[in-house]
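Input structure tokens:
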């Protein structure tokens, strides 16, 4: 890490990789743990100290410290600077990767990642039902989530430019629309639908 001292403040050059596609089940296990997922979400918006994260997440400092260290060991966060909090210097932490996509094929490699995929599928099913759609086949939905995640990842790996998170999500959606065959769209509409009232 490179640093410069300017007016007695330590300033660090903070470079962030744009996209990381993770397919290692052990790494996925680190990322999808609930508290660590929340920490990564917080750090998407700005760099923070351990005490700031603990306050926002309503957790004790030692718990957040332990999770941040695990993320740091995995190369997902790093120290980006220092800030004084009540005259005590605290390290600032930031993400090393702006956007993390989990590769779907890795979800079949361990019981933990299978449970995570099932939890994600259940959340998506409930959200669809909340807005009036019906899903009769949970396994179909799970396979569809895998398919959707997979279809645009190879193109997204080629993106080298600095992109806003929302722009990147839109790009992923466009790639999905460009790559999904018409027959697959018809199948999806048969399996996931809004009942007529």
């Amino acid at each position: 890490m490179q640093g410069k001292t300017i007016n007695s403040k330590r300033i660090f050059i903070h470079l962030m990789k744009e996209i990381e596609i993770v397919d290692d089940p052990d790494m996925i296990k680190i990322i999808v743990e609930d508290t660590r997922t929340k920490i990564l979400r917080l750090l998407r918006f700005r760099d923070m100290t351990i005490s700031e994260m603990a306050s926002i997440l309503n957790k004790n400092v030692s718990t957040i410290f332990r999770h941040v260290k695990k993320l740091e060991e995995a190369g997902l966060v790093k120290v980006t600077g220092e800030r004084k909090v009540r005259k005590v210097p605290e390290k600032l932490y930031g993400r090393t990767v702006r956007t993390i996509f989990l590769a779907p094929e890795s979800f079949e490699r361990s019981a933990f990642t299978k449970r995570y995929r099932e939890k994600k599928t259940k959340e998506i099913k409930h959200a669809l039902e909340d807005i009036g759609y019906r899903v009769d086949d949970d396994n179909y939905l799970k396979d569809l989530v895998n398919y959707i995640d997979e279809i645009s990842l190879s193109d997204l790996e080629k993106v080298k430019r600095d992109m806003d998170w929302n722009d990147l999500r839109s790009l992923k959606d466009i790639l999905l629309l460009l790559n999904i065959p018409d027959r697959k769209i018809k199948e999806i509409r048969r399996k996931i639908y809004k009942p007529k009232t």
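The domain at 3-99 is CATH 1.10.10.10 (Arc Repressor Mutant, subunit A). The first strand starts at residue 3 and ends at 6.
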